[in-house]
Amino acid sequence: MRSHTGLSNKEAVVKLKKYGLNEIRDTSQTTPLKILIRQIKSNFLIYLLSVAVFFSFIVGKSITAYAILAVILMVVIIGFIQEYKAEKAIHALKGMLVANSMAVRDGKEKEIPSNQIVPGDILILRTGEKVPADCLLLEEQELKVNEAVLTGESGEVGKKISSNGKHKDENMLFMGTFVVNGRCLAKAVHTGMNTKFGQIAGLISSAEKDMPLQIKVNSIVKYMVTAAIIVSVMTGALIFWRAPIIDQEIIITTLILIIALSVSAFPEGFPVVLITTLAAGARRMAKQNAIVNRMSIIETLGETTVICSDKTGTITKGEMTINRIFANDEYYDVTGTGFTGRGDFLLNNKKIEPVKEPVLEKMLHAAVLCNDAIIERIGTDMEFKTSGSPTESALMVLGAKAGLFKEDVEHERIQEMPFNSTRKMMTVLCRLNRESIVFSKGAPEYILKHCAFVQKNGKILKLSDKEQKKILEANKNLNSSALRTIALAYKKVDDFDKNHFEENLIFLGLTGMEDPAREEVKDTLKQCRAAGIKVKMITGGNQETARSIAKEIGLRGGLIDGDELENMTDEELAKNINHISIFARVKPEHKLRLVNILKANGEIVTMTGDGVNDAPALKEAHIGIAMGKNGTDVSRSVADMTIKDDNFATIVGAVREGRNIFKNIRKFATYQLTCNFAELTILFFGVLLSPWLGWQIPLLLALQILFMNLVTDNLPAITLGLNPSSQDSMIDPPRRNSNILNKKLIILLVSTGSLLALMVLSVFYVSFNLLGESTEYARTAALFTLICLEVVSAFNFRSFRKGLLFRSPFINPYLFFASLISLAATFIIIYTPLNKVFETVPLGTEGFILALLMCVIFAVIFDSLKYLNRRLKIVNLETA
Q1: Which of 716, 756, 681 is nearest to 228 (CA)?
Q2: Of all helices (H) and strands (E), which one includes residue 123?
Q3: CA quadruple 410, 413, 417, 419: dihedral sign
Q4: Distance (Å, rounded) from C-alpha 173 to C-alpha 180?
Q5: Residue 839 backbone class (left: φ over 0; alpha: ψ -120 to 50; beta: rest)
Q6: Higher pLDDT, 715 or 371
Q7: Between the CA of residue 257 and those of 64, 496, 552, 602, 801, what are the distances in Å?
Q8: Could you give phi then psi for residue 104, rounded to 5 degrees?
């Protein structure tokens, strides 16, 4: 394979200008004009307020009418800005994972962004990779693809080269399909919207279904609107009952008030604030290398009770370094760490030249030629940039330390049998020095099954039971030192026989590679334990290595391997799975079984995977996580989230962020509904108490209510959704109730709203009945107090656990500045000519003192309650 030179970089640049980027245009993307039209068409508030404008003009209140028109304009502008920002954030998240493909440019293999592929590019495709363009097959080895994305059929389809070069289905690979077996060389013929996939995508526009959270929010909105209309109508009925004369003006004024009340209690910002909060959280997660493929999973992410994580590259660094070799019944040491060609081969602490040792020389050729990784030298030094799996990269670097580079070896790969999770080995047939040689590498126990001989010191001997036992003992010794082992074998052949390709191999030796645990994993596991999250380490490797790594990171629990797993019934596994934390020699089908057992036990399961055969388990788990660095395109396509750095700590960080996002949604929902409840209560009881207290009703006017709803309710609510992530999110057990509001939070919002209403009614009473101020003054004092209390309440809702008085106001800077804007806007409608429009009057010192006193009392009450709750642990609202 790879006999083609491909395009030159200059040719590729010219073609890219001609054909454009290799991308599928999103025909469903919302334009700013569409958002604006949607804001006007679908916003019920605008129709309600338009009715209020009409009635205002009828009774001659033109100033009020124009003011409400200004409110309508503000509603449209604010809604447009929020939705436009949310749309942009969602679109940006979709583009955060850049796919790459292996292409031949200027005669060299190199990784390029898939969107820069042009017609004429020669592409190298391997098992697990997505086909990035419509391609003509040039060369193939055991190639099979999954074309379900185009045909709906999930089976594997074999592909063959056509002798006449005509484009037919059997010799074409299509964009969006997946290579599920083998590898190939193919020539891109169509890209972007000119592909078969692009033509189909151009005919349809996808519309995402509502997320579960959106459905819950819509349900809250529906109940709140119903309650608001009932209370508003009751308030209107009370006004009519209280009025000595019911004339046209009192009817229309009351209708306008009812509309204003309905608007004030209508949480119209909920759906957009929800998306904004999710998008902001997803952006924070992206900065920490966790890319969510579907925003709907963020809610579930925070509920995770079990994380099933791969060992290699996730719990460990994935930076393989071969530092021991077993061959000739001897242990050889190899110095040097990482992907550097500097290092020596030692036997009994004496430097040797491996190419002069027959067995080592054969092992090095097997390591380099039975290998699909690519290493590129960085500058003139012996530092390398690698592309491919960490294991294969380590084998290539081993060859480099001995001065053996694949490109320097004159060879031709004639045939191959790729590695997969069932065979656990890879074999190639190469033409080398006029000889046909088979090279194999893989898991020792699997390689040994295919070996009939062993080579020692240049002699080929029969592989006896004694020799096998010796090799397995050496393998165990290497594994117990936390070294991952790969066995190497070969044989010379005269004729190629596919059915006997891997029979009667000659065993060469073992390579022991170190893959140390990530330093941060130990602390991350402690966080998981504190948060009530169970961690299970899954590896295809052996028990000894798995046990050694588990001990290093402090992972407690039992260990079983794949054979034991297969011998257990589902009932036995379900009974014992909570006590097992380490699973060794696991196959992909075992992963799927583990997910199903854990789910049946009531767990919320997060599962990682990187291979083609991991896809079913990733799909079945509540949260499927693919690896960004070493994962396959197949696993990434079905996963809910992709970890760009393949780091276990990133997974736990994403769970923490998921918890925090849901808490923020609860906080802004509880806060906004508290404000709405308080406003409804004030107006209702104001009308109810007015006969006995001599109050002129209503206590708050329609425009004042609209002002609060637009400026002082919505702004802080939006910013509460942007609260920064806190470590406190990981000190509570996973929540089991995913409702945004539950009984405890409803009690909290009703009691808080009632307290706010009582305080505002008290201010009106003191101002009007005790101090003898005018209705306008008392109304202004009540309005100012309510706005101040709502601002203080917003700071109070930053945390359900921690107090307000001794916390920095800058923890959430967005909330701080939103509060300043709300207060500044309030001063403007009280102390500028706008007070004539809003029917307010300037307040004196006593008005400020009353508002300040109420705010202090409110803060002291809630700080005291939170302190008692922390000490006595009465209720945990964080996980309610």
Answers
A1: 681
A2: strand 122-126
A3: positive
A4: 12
A5: left
A6: 371
A7: 12, 90, 68, 50, 37
A8: -100, 115
Beta bridge mates, 441: 426, 488
Catalytic residues: 310
For residue 711, give Cα distances in angstroms to 75, 101, 116, 550: 10, 50, 47, 54
- Print burial letters for 578-594: b (CB count within 10 Å at least 16), e (below 16): eebbbbbbbbbbbbbbb
3-class secondary structure, 657: helix
pLDDT of 260:
65
pLDDT tens for each residue of 350-400 = 999 998 999 999 999 999 999 988 888 776 667 777 777 888 989 999 999
Residue owning tokens 């989230």: 641
Distance linking the first and last C-alpha atoms of the chain: 61
DSSP characters over 85-106: HHHHHHHHHHTSS--EEEEEET
| The two three-digit tokens of residue 127, written as one number | 């098992």
Angstrom distance (rounded) from CA 111 to CA 877: 50
Question: What is the residue-averaged pLDDT of the chain?
Answer: 85
pLDDT of residue 374: 83
Give 435's strand partners: 432
Residue 500 has pLDDT above 80, yes or no: no
Q: What is the rounded distance in angstroms from the CA atom of residue 368 to the CA atom of residue 861?
A: 72
The size of the chain, in residues, is 880
Q: So what's the pLDDT on residue 791?
A: 94
Q: At what angle do helices 648-693 and 270-287 cross, to 10 degrees?
A: 150
In this model, does residue 118 exceed pLDDT 90? Answer: yes
Evaluate whether 41 touches 79 at the Cβ level (below 8 Å): no
The DSSP output letter for 419 is -
CA 88, CA 94: separation in Å to the nearest integer? 10
Write the CA distances from 561 to 308, 439, 584, integer angstroms: 15, 28, 4
**What span, in angstroms and rounded, lies between the C-alpha atoms of 267 and 211?**
18
* Mean pLDDT (whole number) for 41-52: 68
List Cβ neighbours of 323 (8 Å cut-off, separation of 6 or more). 333, 334, 335, 337, 483, 512, 513, 514
Q: What whole-number distance in Å separates Cα of residue 632 and Cα of residue 498? A: 27
The verdict on whether omega for the bond into residue 698 sits within 30 degrees of 0, i.e. cis, is yes
Report the C-alpha gap between 686 and 343 in whole angstroms: 85
Measured distance CA(508)–CA(354) in Å, rounded? 13
Question: Which of 134, 135, 130 is CA-nearest to residue 180?
Answer: 130
Secondary structure (3-state) at 48: helix
Q: Is the dihedral of CA 408, 409, 415, 421 positive or negative?
A: negative
Is the pLDDT at 731 greater than 50? The verdict is yes
Q: Report the C-alpha dihedral over residues 805, 811, 813, 814, rounded to 10 degrees.
A: -90
Identify the band that residue 212 occupies on the pLDDT scale cut at 50, 70 and 90. low
Q: Which residues contact 853 (CB under 8 A, 6 or more apart)?
A: none
Mean pLDDT in residue range 509-514: 94
Residues 6+ apart with CB under 8 A from 520: 647, 649
DSSP 117: -
Residue 823: pLDDT above 70? Answer: yes
pTM of the model: 0.77
For the chain, domains (ranges, CATH) are 9-25+96-203 (2.70.150.10), 213-286+654-873 (1.20.1110.10), 303-316+518-646 (3.40.50.1000), 321-514 (3.40.1110.10)
Confidence class of residue 735 from pLDDT cuts 50, 70 and 90? Answer: confident
Helix %, strand %, coil % for the chain, to 5? 50, 20, 30
Asked if 814 contacts 721 with a C-beta cutoff of 8 angstroms, the reply is no
Calpha distance 270→273 (Å, rounded): 5
Structure tokens at 216: 């819950």
At 153 the three-state DSSP class reads coil
DSSP readout, 520-548? THHHHHHHHHHTT-EEEEE-SS-HHHHHH
Coil/strand/helix, residue 124: strand
